[in-house]
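Protein: FAD-dependent oxidoreductase
Species: Streptomyces finlayi
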Amino acid sequence: MPVSGSEPYDLAVIGAGPAGLAGAVAAADMGLKVALLDASAHTGGQFYRTPHPALGAVRPEALHHDWSGYADLRGRLAQSRIRHLPGHHVWSVTNESADVGATWAVHAVTGADGGDGRPVRLRARAVLLATGAYERHLPIPGWTLPGVVAAGGAQAMLKSGLVLPGRRIVVAGSGPLLLAVASALAAAGARVPAVVEASGYLRYARHPRALVTNPHKSAEALVHGTALLRHRVRVRMRSAVTEVHGTDRVEAVTVTRLDKNWRPAQGAGRRIQCDALAVGHGLMPQIELATTLGCASRSLPDGTRALAVDRLQETSVRGLWAAGETGGVGGAALARTEGELAGIAAAARLLGRLAPSGRVRALQRRRDRMRAFVDVMAAAHAPGPGWSRWLTDETEVCRCEEVTAGRIREAVEDLGARDARTVKLLTRAGMGWCQGRMCGAAVACLAACGRADGLPVERRPLAVPVPLAVLAGLDDPDGKPAGAPSYRPST
Ligand SMILES: Cc1cc2nc3c(=O)[nH]c(=O)nc-3n(C[C@H](O)[C@H](O)[C@H](O)COP(=O)(O)OP(=O)(O)OC[C@H]3O[C@@H](n4cnc5c(N)ncnc54)[C@H](O)[C@@H]3O)c2cc1C
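Structure follows.
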């Protein structure tokens, strides 16, 4: 049935990871016209990355657990009338409530990294934000050497490119992702001389209820633990990589014991030979699109910020739903549950129907059970304020703008900066291409002089880099960038 040109989509879903996929298919099953946008060329998000077909991987699912959940969603997407828009980088969502029948405009640019800069705008009556998370990085002296990669980045190299960042790889930082990364690297043939975890796992034992009600999490840890034992990988708790050594690339790292506040012990530490370091300190919800629209956020026990949502996953802004890591980092199964709940809730609202109460209650129970575990996990791996003691004045903190820890300390101690924004204005830290994604957490902590204040709420009008021509095109009286196609439902 042809659709009038002015008709918007019912629901625009941003992010085609487990949360966005589940939300899109649930809403489409109930009868909504759905557009599903993702910056990536593929569905699956961070977790279900698959090798490029040209690499000829025979069993890509071997790199994942819980593949069947993803296969089911992918199959339902293929059967549906959802308009899947891969390679679309959403840089802003704006409220267009003045328009008849449309509430939201989703602005995107296309191409790898937004490279070809073709502007796209589509309209929708409601939006589901499922933009996932990115890794938290804490700088280390020597971390700019080739061979230092993000822990999730090492896993992405393996899952998407079937390559390893080195032959002998130390995995370090904090959080359960390290166990998954180390066991995957070892199974793929890397030698992993150590997993270096800055916190410990004993704090989980203080919350037996969260453990008992989430047996799949303990089972997952057991699987990774057994794999690490089989590959003779040593796990060093309450320790950190405090220096990376090498001339042209990584040759070794120094591992130092930490106290409970992550302050490194005095002394030389232990030197471990390696040719790569995979390092990460947990994940941070990617919520810029939502906070710019005024959605309320909340602090999590690990100092990150996540969107505040109600029992049906709606944010504090009516018509904007959120699911998955945007509400706090909790894994693919939780993301799928929340996505489905949000999709059902949005469809019920737009269609003026009651949501199926039995299914909604079951999803809510599952979500609450998993979120309880997530809070325990976040508290167990919260960075202690003492980490900044392993920085020297020469350590680069902002890699894009080459701003050192010394310059940031000067801005704080001599010039009186007390927050990340003032440090940014004084030093340019966070003004480069990554817009503070690499250094933001570290700069905020250094600006707060080590106080665990949590991250400030960022309001960014542009969520991803956008060519100036696209912004200039917004002057179009119709609000449409020059040459921008407006995608319309194809039903
Ligand atoms: C680097 C990394 C590695 C991980 N490894 C593991 C692991 O080994 N095991 C595990 O259990 N969990 C892992 N996780 C967590 C796991 O990926 C998540 O729990 C799960 O994928 C969350 O699903 P999601 O749908 O909320 O987000 P994601 O899967 O992250 O999906 C979000 C999607 O949104 C898209 N997106 C974001 N911003 C935009 C934008 N502005 N415009 C368009 N598209 C956008 C992204 O391209 C992505 O496809 C990892 C996370 C990260 C960041």
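Remarks: The two ends are 6 Å apart (CA to CA).
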